[in-house]
Design a protein that fits this description.
Four Helix Bundle (Hemerythrin (Met), subunit A); two-stranded antiparallel sheet; metal-binding; DinB
Length: about 170
């Protein structure tokens, strides 16, 4: 019997639900927020190692990707990447932006349908991949940059939050 790709997809069991994926992502976002909080104000904006960007700059990148990315996916509006629009001058402002972005992610996530995950989307007009790969990129990129934050905090003598407490 010949089976089509569509029939195979329909027979495949789900490993993780849409709500579980959002909870996973928001768990990472909660942990990254705690890393931001752990930074001393001055070092958040000035400290780096080996020419890497400061954690404020990395945070601006994360803010420019997650909420705008999921909004674009849901609305099908391709907007350019705009990191400069997410920059702030105090850690408190970054935390406020972080919380607003979390709310935006939750709002737009509720508008996603399961069938949307397999559709392609041209993220920021640069990367055309299935929606699920874009979302996994949001999470992977955040974990990567949070790891840099952990290195910075340890170099500053600050104990970072436990990575498993999301």
């Amino acid at each position: 019997m010949n089976t089509t790709a569509q029939e195979i997809t329909q027979e495949t069991k789900q490993v993780i639900s849409q709500d579980e994926l959002l909870n996973h992502w928001q768990g990472h976002r909660n942990l990254t927020r705690r890393v931001i909080e752990a930074f001393p104000e001055k070092e958040f904006f000035e400290f780096s190692i080996g020419g890497m960007r400061t954690f404020a700059e990395l945070t601006a990148e994360l803010l420019a990707i997650g909420a705008p990315g999921i909004k674009g996916i849901v609305t099908q509006e391709v907007q350019p990447y705009q990191e400069d629009s997410t920059k702030a001058t105090t850690k408190a402002e970054y935390l406020e932006k972080w919380d607003k972005a979390t709310s935006v992610i939750n709002d737009y996530w509720s508008q996603l349908r399961v069938e949307d995950f397999s559709k392609t989307f041209n993220l920021f007009g640069e990367y055309e991949f299935p929606v699920i790969q874009n979302i996994l990129y949001f999470i992977d990129n955040e974990v990567h940059h949070r790891g840099q934050g952990y290195v910075y905090l340890r170099a500053l003598g600050v104990e970072p939050p436990f990575f498993w407490e999301r």
